[in-house]
C-alpha cells in the first residue's frame, strides 16, 4: 500500500469548500492557498461560483480533470454521496474530515461501513472519517482543518507523525514546531474506516522523505496488520517510536470509555512492539525526544558507553542512568588515562572520566580525552557533559570542533552532547550527527534505546519458521485428524507429546490395582488424579492427591477420589486415574496459548506454581517465535537467574525450555483459529530438562469465514 | 546554626582581590560591584592600593571595621593565615574558594582540618574550601568566582539550591535562569571542612526567604546531622527535593572515584529520605520540575485525582500515569456528568472527562466541568489538559479565568494545567497557585509527589520513642549487664526474647538423650542444630539437620553432627544442641540491625529464606522507627500481599510483625555503637504470630570516644 495519492497529491479537490476560513470546509482552502502548496486546488461547492476568491465547481463530476486527492468536509449525511462521486471520478484518495460516524453509535457505524465499502470497491484510499487530515511539510500540503499551521510550521524534516487521535495530532504538531523537530508527514487516521495507523506506517516505509516514524495508537483493529507494518519498518531500518495508551488498568478503562476501537490487552501490544523492534515511549515528551534522537544520531553497535564530564557528580548521575539502562562503562585505555592524569593531575580517569572545570582554562584536554576515547575502540557510544559551559558564546566553536574531530576519528561511534546549548549550537551539533540533550540522563536513555533498537534488528526481521529447526519432521505439524473439544488430561499430554513437548512420566489406569502397579513402575513417588474431559479444576472437586507413601494409601486415595468426584461433580465422566511421577523442579513455569481475533496466535510464558496467584509474572510472545525472543523473556521473568548457581545448585541449561517454547508457539501458530486453549501449568524444569505436569487442551474447528490456520499465520509474514 | 553572616552579610571582604576579573580573586569583586550588592565591599590585597578602581587594604587586620563575611581567594598555602586573620578580626563567616585541600591528598586533608579547627575555635562559619561560593538572589550578593551571573540571573524567588558540587551548582544556576525558577539562595559546599549540605539545609529552615530547598548530595560524612536537618525542614513544612547520586553499583563506583567524601550505601540514604519526608529526584530535570511544583502549587490532601482533557487519548495516557503514581480516579458526580452530556452529547463523562475539541466552539463547557469538579468534593487534585489550545492568544485569558474560578470554588484543591502555553501565560497561571507542565504526565507526577510529601508529614516529624508503646516496661531497655561478644544461638534467642522478640519453641540440651526428650516435648517436628559461639554458618560444617522422623534418626543425627563439626571446625567450642520446633510459616522474613558510624542505628527488613539468595528484596529503616514506616516497607516488599487471602489461606494480621520490628529497631537504637550485629533469619510468620527461628547477636563495648549509645541515639532527635 503506497498511499501515494494521499501523501504526495499533485492536485487536491475540497468538497464542501466554504467561504468562511474558520469552518471545517473553509480552513483547508485557506491553508492550501496561503501556505505555498504548489499543486492544483479545486473547490467544490454547489451553492457558490467562487469561494475565497477562487472558482468553485458544483460537483466533483463537473471538474475538468481528475484530482489525486479529495478532501471531504460536508456534513455526515452528505459524505456518502460525495465519496461515491470521488470513486466514480477515479480519484486516488479521499480524506473525510466530517464527524458523525462510528463515534456516535450504530447508525453512524453502519454509514461508516458503507464508506469503507465504496473505497474498497473502487480501489480508492480512504482516510477517516472523523479525522483531522494530513500535512506534507515538504510540499506545503495542509489537508486539515486545524488552524495550527497558521501560527507557524515545523521545519521540513525526516520524521513522520501518524496519530489515531486528532487532538493528539494537533498537540504533537505544536510540540514539533516548538521543539524544532523536522517533519516529513503528519497524518491523523480518526475512525479508521479503511486506513489505519498500521497502513500509514506501512506506506511510510516506502516514503523516501521519511526516516523515522512517530506513531500514536489508541487501539488496533487488525493487530496482525500492525505487526506486519512494524516488521517491515524495522526491516527497512526505519525506527518506529510508538505511544500506545492504556498501559494500566485505569488507562485501559479510560481508553474503552472514549474510543470506538477495540483496545486490546496491553501486554499483547507490548509483545508486538518487542517482537517487531518497535520502540515504545510512555510519555509524549519521551516520544519526541526519542524521535529526535533517531533522526539525528548513530545507533551504538554495542553496550559499551564512555562518559566524559566536567562534573564528577553529574558523571555519577549518568553512571546510575547507564546502569539502569543496561549499558556498561569500560575503563579508558591505560595509556590514555596516564596522559590525561599528566595533563590534569586531579582529574578522574575512570569511566566516567572527569576532566573537571579545568577545561575553562585548558579546553584542549577535552579534545584529547574525547578523541582518544573515540579512537581507542573501547566504546560504542560516547557522551560528553559540558554543564553550563555550552551557554557561553566563546565555547560554541570549541564544542562544535570537538564533535567534528570525534566524528572524524570514529565515524561509526554514537555521540551525544549534554549541557546547556543555544538553539544555534544545538542545530550545529545535530548537523554532525550528535545527539543533544540538556538533561544528561536523557542522552543515556536515547543511546540505550537506539542500541536496543539496533540489536533487536536481526531478530525482529527474522521470519520465525512455523516449524522450528529443533523439531523433528515427524512431529512438525498437527496431525491431520486433530482431536476436538476439551481433551482429558491424558489426551492433552499425549497431543503435546506428539508435538515434541515432553510430559512427566505417567500412566493412565482404570482402577486401584492398575494404579498400584503404575505407582511401583514410576518409582513410588507419584501424584494421583482423576481423568475426565469435563473437569478443568480437578483439585476443586477432590480429584487430586499427593504425598502418597505406600500402596495402602494409594488404594485408599483412589477410593476417596472416586467418591469425592462422584459427590461433587456427578455429571463429570470419570475415565480412570492418571498416576504421574512427582518431579522436584528447580523452577515451575506456565505456558499458555490462545488465538486472538485481532493479533492471531499468542503465547503466554510465566512463572508457574504459587507465583501465578501470589505475584503473577508473565510475558506474551507473538507466535511463532525465535530463540532470542524466548531467551529475552526468560531473562526478564527472572527464570535465567533461577536456573543459575544458588544454594549449591548446579546451573541448569535453558535450552530445553527455549526449544519447548518454540515448539509450543509453532504449534499455536499452526493450529490457528482452531486453537481454543492450550495451557501447561506447571511446566517443570529440572536438571534433566522440562516436563509438562498438567495440560489443558481445547481445540475446535476454525470459524468458517477465516482462511485455514496455517495459511493465515504464514500470510502475516513479510 | 543560622549561618546568618554567610547567607545575609551586610558587608563582605575579599581576601586576594585581584585586578583581573577573570581570576578567582577578581571575579567576586566584579560581581559584587556590578550586579547591585548594596552592602559594603572591602578588598584585601597586600600588593596593591587599588583593585578594579576600589581602595584595597593590605590585610583583614588593617580594615577599619569588621565585615560580616570574608571571601578567601588566595592560593592554598596562604589560606590558613588568611582564615586566622579573619578569626582574629571576629568575622562571622568565611568562604574559602581556593582548592588544593582534601581533594589533593593527605597533606591537603591535614591543612583542611586546620582550617576547620580555626573556624571551630572562633565560632566562625566556614564554607569550603574548594567550593564555588554562594549567591543571595534577593540581595544581589554574588560571593562566587563563577562568571555565570554575568550572563543573566534567575528571578529572586523562594527556592534555595544547595550543592556539594560546584560544577553541578553552576549548571543548576543556568538551568534555573533558563527555566524561570525563582531563587532565594545558591550555595555550594565543596569539601565541607566545617559546613555541610545538611548544615545549610538546617539554616535554610530558619530563612524566611526560602520555602523550598533543592539539595544535591554526593555523600554525607554525618548522616545523623543530615537526618536531623531533613526532619527539621519537614517539620517546618519546607519541602527538600534531593538528588543523591550513586544509586546503582556503577554510580557508587563512579562517586567513590571522584569525591573525597564517604559515599554511604544508597539504600541507607533512601531510608533517610523516606523516613524524614524528603523528596528524592533521580534526574536534574526532575529535581527542577518538582522544585517549581512545590514552590508554585498546593499539595493535594489525598489521592483522588480528577482529569479534564480535550483529548481522550491523552486522558488515557494521564490515567496510566496516575495509576503508576498510586492515584485514584473517582467518577464525576452523576448530576454533573448528566449536565455535561446534555451540553456535549459525544463527550466522555467518566474520569478522565473528555470535553473534546468542542471547547474551541463553546469554551464555557470547560469552565462548567472544571468548576463543578472542583466544587463537588470528590477530588483532592484536578488536572486540566488543553493540548495546543494554550498557544493560541485568544485562549490565554479564558484559561486564566478558568483557573481563577476553580481556585475560588475550592481554595484547598491542588490544580495543574497541561498543554502548550506561552511564558507569559505560564507565569499568570502559576501566580494563581496552578502547576503548569507541558508534558501531561509531569503534572500527574508532580501532584503525586506533593501528595506523598504531605501525607508523610505527620509520620516524618514524629519522634519515634526508643521504647515503643507495645513493649512492656520490664523489657524496655537492654539489661545493665549486657552479654558481650558473639553469642551462641541459644543466648542470642534468649537475649532477643528478653526484649520481647519471641523465638520458635526450643530447648538447649547437652546430649542425645536430652535431645530425644526435648523432641518429644516439642511435638515431634523439630530442627536439630549444634550450639557454638564460634560458628556463624552452622550448616556449612554439617551442624544442622531437619526432617528427623523418629528417635532413632534423632540420635543418629546428634552423633553425625558432633562428628562433622569436630572434623570440619575442630577449634569451635561445642556447647550441646538446640532442638527447635519446626514451624510452617506463611512468610519468612529477615531482620537485621547494625550501627553505622555515619547514620547511627539502622534496621534491614527483607524477605527471608530462599529469597535472600535468589532475588533479594530488602529495605532499610532508620532506628527507632514508627508503625507507619514499618507498614510502608511491608507493603513495598510484598509482605502484606503474602499475608492476604490466596490459595484458600486465611489472612494474617501484620500487627505482630510491626511490633516485632518496632522492638527490634528500638533495641538497636538503645544498644547504640555497642551493637555489632543482630540478625534474625528467618523470622517465621505464621497464623499464630511471629517467631525467630535463628539469631546471630554480637555485642561489644561502645568505642571509647563515643558518647553512650542511648544518649547518642536520643541526641539525634529534634
From TrEMBL, chains A, B:
<protein>
    <submittedName>
        <fullName>Acetate--CoA ligase family protein</fullName>
    </submittedName>
</protein>
<keyword id="KW-0436">Ligase</keyword>
<comment type="similarity">
    <text>In the N-terminal section; belongs to the acetate CoA ligase alpha subunit family.</text>
</comment>
<dbReference type="InterPro" id="IPR032875">
    <property type="entry name" value="Succ_CoA_lig_flav_dom"/>
</dbReference>
<dbReference type="InterPro" id="IPR003781">
    <property type="entry name" value="CoA-bd"/>
</dbReference>
<dbReference type="InterPro" id="IPR036291">
    <property type="entry name" value="NAD(P)-bd_dom_sf"/>
</dbReference>
<dbReference type="GO" id="GO:0005524">
    <property type="term" value="F:ATP binding"/>
</dbReference>
<feature type="region of interest" description="Disordered">
    <location>
        <begin position="698"/>
        <end position="718"/>
    </location>
</feature>
<keyword id="KW-0067">ATP-binding</keyword>
<dbReference type="InterPro" id="IPR016102">
    <property type="entry name" value="Succinyl-CoA_synth-like"/>
</dbReference>
<dbReference type="InterPro" id="IPR043938">
    <property type="entry name" value="Ligase_CoA_dom"/>
</dbReference>
<dbReference type="Pfam" id="PF13549">
    <property type="entry name" value="ATP-grasp_5"/>
</dbReference>
<dbReference type="GO" id="GO:0043758">
    <property type="term" value="F:acetate-CoA ligase (ADP-forming) activity"/>
</dbReference>
<dbReference type="InterPro" id="IPR051538">
    <property type="entry name" value="Acyl-CoA_Synth/Transferase"/>
</dbReference>
<dbReference type="InterPro" id="IPR013815">
    <property type="entry name" value="ATP_grasp_subdomain_1"/>
</dbReference>
<feature type="compositionally biased region" description="Polar residues">
    <location>
        <begin position="706"/>
        <end position="718"/>
    </location>
</feature>
<keyword id="KW-0547">Nucleotide-binding</keyword>
<dbReference type="Pfam" id="PF19045">
    <property type="entry name" value="Ligase_CoA_2"/>
</dbReference>
<dbReference type="Pfam" id="PF13380">
    <property type="entry name" value="CoA_binding_2"/>
</dbReference>
<dbReference type="Pfam" id="PF13607">
    <property type="entry name" value="Succ_CoA_lig"/>
</dbReference>
<feature type="domain" description="CoA-binding">
    <location>
        <begin position="6"/>
        <end position="101"/>
    </location>
</feature>
Amino acid at each position: 500500500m503506497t498511499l501515494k495519492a494521499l501523501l504526495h497529491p499533485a492536485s487536491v479537490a475540497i468538497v464542501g469548500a466554504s467561504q468562511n476560513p474558520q469552518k471545517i470546509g473553509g480552513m483547508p482552502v485557506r491553508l492550501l492557498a496561503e501556505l505555498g502548496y504548489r499543486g492544483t486546488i479545486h473547490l467544490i461547492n454547489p451553492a457558490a461560483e467562487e469561494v475565497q476568491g477562487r472558482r468553485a465547481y458544483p460537483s466533483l463530476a463537473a471538474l475538468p480533470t481528475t484530482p489525486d486527492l479529495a478532501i471531504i468536509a460536508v456534513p455526515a449525511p452528505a459524505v456518502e454521496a460525495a465519496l461515491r462521486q470521488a470513486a466514480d471520478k477515479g480519484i486516488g484518495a479521499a480524506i473525510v474530515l466530517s464527524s458523525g460516524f462510528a463515534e456516535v453509535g450504530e447508525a453512524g457505524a453502519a454509514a461508516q461501513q458503507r464508506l469503507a465499502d465504496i473505497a474498497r470497491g473502487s480501489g480508492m484510499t480512504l482516510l477517516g472519517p472523523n479525522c483531522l487530515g494530513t500535512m506534507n511539510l515538504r510540499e506545503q500540503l495542509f489537508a486539515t482543518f486545524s488552524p495550527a499551521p497558521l501560527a507557524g510550521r515545523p521545519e521540513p524534516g525526516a520524521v513522520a507523525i501518524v496519530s489515531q487521535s486528532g487532538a493528539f495530532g494537533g498537540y504533537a504538531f505544536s510540540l514539533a514546531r516548538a521543539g524544532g523537530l523536522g517533519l516529513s508527514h503528519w497524518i491523523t487516521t480518526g475512525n479508521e474506516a479503511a486506513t489505519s495507523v498500521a497502513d500509514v506506517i506501512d506506506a511510510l516505509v516506502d516514503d523516501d522523505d521519511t526516516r523515522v516514524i512517530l506513531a500514536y495508537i489508541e487501539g488496533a483493529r487488525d493487530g496482525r496488520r500492525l505487526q506486519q507494518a512494524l516488521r517491515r519498518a524495522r526491516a527497512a531500518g526505519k525506527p518506529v517510536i510508538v505511544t500506545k495508551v492504556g498501559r494500566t488498568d485505569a488507562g485501559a478503562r479510560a481508553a474503552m470509555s472514549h474510543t470506538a476501537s477495540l483496545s486490546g490487552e496491553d501486554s499483547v501490544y507490548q509483545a508486538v512492539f518487542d517482537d517487531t523492534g518497535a520502540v515504545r515511549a510512555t510519555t509524549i515528551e519521551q516520544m519526541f525526544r526519542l524521535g529526535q534522537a533517531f533522526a539525528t544520531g548513530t545507533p551504538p553497535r554495542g553496550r559499551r558507553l564512555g562518559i566524559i564530564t566536567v562534573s564528577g557528580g553529574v558523571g555519577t548521575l549518568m553512571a546510575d542512568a547507564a546502569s539502569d539502562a543496561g549499558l556498561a562503562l569500560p575503563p579508558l585505555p591505560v595509556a590514555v588515562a596516564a596522559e590525561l592524569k599528566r595533563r590534569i593531575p586531579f582529574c578522574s580517569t575512570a569511566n566516567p572520566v572527569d576532566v573537571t572545570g579545568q577545561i575553562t582554562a585548558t579546553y584542549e584536554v577535552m579534545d584529547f580525552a574525547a578523541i582518544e576515547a573515540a579512537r581507542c575502540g573501547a566504546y560504542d557510544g560516547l557522551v560528553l557533559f559540558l554543564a553550563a559551559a555550552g551557554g557561553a558564546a566563546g565555547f560554541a566553536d570549541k564544542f562544535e570542533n570537538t564533535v567534528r574531530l570525534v566524528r572524524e576519528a570514529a565515524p561509526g561511534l554514537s555521540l551525544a552532547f549534554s549541557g546547556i546549548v543555544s538553539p544555534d549550537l544545538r542545530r550545529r551539533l545535530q548537523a554532525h550527527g550528535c545527539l543533544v540533550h540538556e538533561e544528561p540522563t536523557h542522552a543515556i536513555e536515547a543511546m540505550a534505546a537506539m542500541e536496543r533498537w539496533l540489536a533487536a534488528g536481526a531478530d525482529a526481521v527474522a521470519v520465525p519458521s512455523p516449524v522450528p529447526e529443533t523439531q523433528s519432521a515427524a512431529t512438525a505439524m498437527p496431525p491431520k485428524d486433530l482431536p476436538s473439544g476439551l481433551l482429558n488430561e491424558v489426551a492433552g499430554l499425549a497431543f503435546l507429546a506428539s508435538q515434541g513437548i515432553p510430559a512427566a512420566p505417567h500412566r493412565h489406569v482404570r482402577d486401584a490395582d492398575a494404579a498400584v502397579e503404575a505407582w511401583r513402575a514410576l518409582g513410588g513417588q507419584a501424584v494421583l488424579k482423576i481423568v475426565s474431559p469435563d473437569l478443568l479444576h480437578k483439585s476443586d472437586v477432590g480429584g487430586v492427591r499427593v504425598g502418597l507413601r505406600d500402596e495402602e494409601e494409594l488404594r485408599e486415595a483412589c477410593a476417596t477420589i472416586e467418591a469425592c468426584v462422584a459427590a461433587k461433580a456427578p455429571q463429570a465422566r470419570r475415565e480412570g486415574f492418571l498416576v504421574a511421577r512427582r518431579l522436584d523442579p528447580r523452577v515451575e513455569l506456565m505456558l499458555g496459548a490462545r488465538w486472538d481475533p485481532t493479533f492471531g496466535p499468542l503465547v503466554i510464558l510465566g512463572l508457574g506454581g504459587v507465583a501465578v496467584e501470589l505475584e503473577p509474572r508473565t510475558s506474551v510472545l507473538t507466535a511463532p517465535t525465535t530463540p532470542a525472543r524466548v531467551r529475552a523473556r526468560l531473562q526478564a521473568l527472572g527464570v535465567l537467574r533461577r536456573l543459575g548457581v544458588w544454594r549449591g545448585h548446579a546451573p541448569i541449561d535453558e535450552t530445553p525450555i527455549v526449544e519447548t517454547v518454540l515448539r509450543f508457539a509453532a504449534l499455536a501458530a499452526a493450529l490457528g483459529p482452531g486453537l481454543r486453549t492450550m495451557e501447561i501449568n506447571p511446566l517443570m524444569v529440572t536438571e534433566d530438562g522440562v516436563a509438562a505436569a498438567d495440560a489443558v487442551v481445547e481445540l475446535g474447528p476454525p470459524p468458517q469465514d477465516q482462511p485455514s490456520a496455517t495459511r493465515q499465520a504464514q500470510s502475516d509474514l513479510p
